[in-house]
Automatic annotation (TrEMBL):
Protein name, as recorded: DUF4190 domain-containing protein
Keywords for this protein: Membrane, Transmembrane, Transmembrane helix
Top-rank taxon: Bacteria
Organism for this UniProt entry: Plantactinospora endophytica
Membrane-spanning residues: 24-52, 80-102
Amino acid sequence: MPAAGPVTRHPLDPDPVRSTKSRAVFALGLVALLTGVLVGGIVPATMAMLLARQARREAYASGGYLTGAAWLRRGERMAWAGLVLAATSVVAATIIGVVNLANGSVGQDFAPGVD
Protein backbone atom coordinates (compact mmCIF):
# COMPACT_ATOMS: atom_id res chain seq x y z
CA MET A 1 0.00 0.00 0.00
CA PRO A 2 1.54 3.36 -0.98
CA ALA A 3 2.17 5.92 1.75
CA ALA A 4 0.03 9.01 1.71
CA GLY A 5 2.09 11.98 0.59
CA PRO A 6 1.43 15.65 1.04
CA VAL A 7 -1.76 16.89 -0.50
CA THR A 8 -1.13 19.08 -3.50
CA ARG A 9 -3.46 21.92 -4.31
CA HIS A 10 -4.89 22.55 -7.69
CA PRO A 11 -3.47 25.78 -9.16
CA LEU A 12 -6.95 27.28 -9.51
CA ASP A 13 -7.90 26.69 -5.87
CA PRO A 14 -8.26 29.94 -3.92
CA ASP A 15 -5.85 30.76 -1.13
CA PRO A 16 -7.23 30.36 2.40
CA VAL A 17 -8.24 33.72 3.87
CA ARG A 18 -9.13 34.76 7.39
CA SER A 19 -12.78 35.62 7.76
CA THR A 20 -13.37 39.28 8.56
CA LYS A 21 -16.59 38.34 10.33
CA SER A 22 -14.64 36.24 12.81
CA ARG A 23 -12.59 39.31 13.72
CA ALA A 24 -15.77 41.35 14.09
CA VAL A 25 -17.26 38.67 16.35
CA PHE A 26 -14.12 38.79 18.48
CA ALA A 27 -14.26 42.60 18.74
CA LEU A 28 -17.97 42.62 19.59
CA GLY A 29 -17.45 39.85 22.15
CA LEU A 30 -14.68 41.88 23.78
CA VAL A 31 -16.91 44.95 23.95
CA ALA A 32 -19.72 42.82 25.40
CA LEU A 33 -17.41 41.41 28.03
CA LEU A 34 -16.09 44.83 29.04
CA THR A 35 -19.52 46.48 29.20
CA GLY A 36 -21.50 43.49 30.46
CA VAL A 37 -21.56 44.66 34.07
CA LEU A 38 -23.10 47.95 32.96
CA VAL A 39 -25.85 46.04 31.11
CA GLY A 40 -24.62 47.73 27.91
CA GLY A 41 -23.05 44.46 26.83
CA ILE A 42 -26.36 42.98 25.74
CA VAL A 43 -26.40 44.74 22.36
CA PRO A 44 -22.85 43.88 21.23
CA ALA A 45 -23.23 40.34 22.58
CA THR A 46 -26.39 39.84 20.57
CA MET A 47 -24.76 41.25 17.46
CA ALA A 48 -21.73 38.99 18.01
CA MET A 49 -23.94 35.91 18.28
CA LEU A 50 -25.83 36.74 15.09
CA LEU A 51 -22.63 37.51 13.20
CA ALA A 52 -21.01 34.31 14.50
CA ARG A 53 -23.87 32.30 13.08
CA GLN A 54 -23.37 33.91 9.66
CA ALA A 55 -19.59 33.45 9.82
CA ARG A 56 -19.97 29.78 10.71
CA ARG A 57 -22.30 29.22 7.74
CA GLU A 58 -19.92 30.99 5.36
CA ALA A 59 -16.93 29.03 6.65
CA TYR A 60 -18.78 25.76 6.16
CA ALA A 61 -19.87 26.74 2.66
CA SER A 62 -16.33 27.81 1.70
CA GLY A 63 -15.01 24.28 2.07
CA GLY A 64 -12.12 25.24 4.32
CA TYR A 65 -10.91 28.32 2.47
CA LEU A 66 -12.17 30.70 5.17
CA THR A 67 -10.18 30.50 8.39
CA GLY A 68 -10.59 32.18 11.75
CA ALA A 69 -12.52 29.56 13.71
CA ALA A 70 -10.42 30.21 16.84
CA TRP A 71 -11.24 33.93 16.76
CA LEU A 72 -14.88 33.02 16.27
CA ARG A 73 -14.94 30.68 19.28
CA ARG A 74 -13.19 33.21 21.51
CA GLY A 75 -15.59 35.95 20.45
CA GLU A 76 -18.61 33.77 21.15
CA ARG A 77 -17.28 32.86 24.59
CA MET A 78 -16.71 36.51 25.45
CA ALA A 79 -20.18 37.41 24.18
CA TRP A 80 -21.74 34.73 26.38
CA ALA A 81 -19.69 35.99 29.33
CA GLY A 82 -20.96 39.52 28.63
CA LEU A 83 -24.55 38.27 28.62
CA VAL A 84 -23.99 36.42 31.89
CA LEU A 85 -22.49 39.55 33.47
CA ALA A 86 -25.43 41.66 32.27
CA ALA A 87 -27.95 39.14 33.64
CA THR A 88 -26.08 38.99 36.95
CA SER A 89 -26.14 42.78 37.18
CA VAL A 90 -29.88 42.88 36.54
CA VAL A 91 -30.56 40.21 39.17
CA ALA A 92 -28.31 41.95 41.72
CA ALA A 93 -29.97 45.33 41.08
CA THR A 94 -33.41 43.74 41.47
CA ILE A 95 -32.47 42.09 44.76
CA ILE A 96 -30.95 45.32 46.10
CA GLY A 97 -34.06 47.25 45.05
CA VAL A 98 -36.42 44.78 46.72
CA VAL A 99 -34.38 44.79 49.93
CA ASN A 100 -34.30 48.60 50.00
CA LEU A 101 -38.04 48.73 49.36
CA ALA A 102 -38.68 46.26 52.19
CA ASN A 103 -36.54 48.22 54.67
CA GLY A 104 -38.01 51.62 53.81
CA SER A 105 -41.13 53.06 55.39
CA VAL A 106 -44.31 52.64 53.41
CA GLY A 107 -46.70 55.54 53.00
CA GLN A 108 -46.53 59.07 54.40
CA ASP A 109 -45.54 59.49 58.03
CA PHE A 110 -47.60 62.15 59.83
CA ALA A 111 -46.73 63.81 63.10
CA PRO A 112 -48.58 62.41 66.16
CA GLY A 113 -51.95 64.02 66.81
CA VAL A 114 -52.52 65.30 63.30
CA ASP A 115 -55.64 63.95 61.60
